[in-house]
Amino acid sequence: MKANEVKKHTVLAHNGLYYVVREVEKSAPTARGGNTTYRIQMFSIPDGHKVDLSLRADDDLESVDLRKREATFSYMDGEDYVFMDVEDYTQYILSAKIVDDIKGYIIEGVEGYYVSLIDENPIALAPPQSIVLEIVDTAPELKGGSATKRTKPARMSTGIDVQVPDYIENGTKIRVNTETGEFMGRE
């Protein structure tokens, strides 16, 4: 796999260990794109040590052959998240470290979560591309506004904050992009 093909939540092998990618940042020093570099932030599995790599677009990385299984969130077991396979009802126990960056997008009754497995051990979780969350706390709309598009922070039912348009109120259900954390629209 080339560095320019790496995406968030990809699992890679590096120096004999497995890593899950949390962030990919592209930087092109010139307008023509010469010497484009990719800064890849990844965390080791399962202990969560952070590693940053800076690579050129055509540098090779070793992708890991893993199995992805669709699952739904069942319940919390202490600090662990328990997901159930939608086909064979196998339970996958994922530690808080594995789901740390996406725990605000984990809710019951939602389809589209994928558990990544290496040798039947769950090592990563990918959420659906978007999810519907309810706003529990946001400031009221400012009156006498202008024609500009203003946003304000809103606290979701899962505890994360999302920037929403000024006219959105408490109790509103909104769709949130799980990759960017951005407001997509009302439900």
UniProtKB/TrEMBL annotation:
Highest taxon of source: Bacteria
Domain Translation elongation factor P/YeiP central: 68-123
Domain Elongation factor P C-terminal: start-end pairs: 131-186
SUPFAM superfamilies attached to this UniProt entry: Nucleic acid-binding proteins, Translation proteins SH3-like domain
Stated family: Belongs to the elongation factor P family.
Cross-referenced HAMAP family: EFP
Name of this protein: Elongation factor P-like protein
Classification lineage: Bacteria, Pseudomonadati, Pseudomonadota, Gammaproteobacteria, Cardiobacteriales
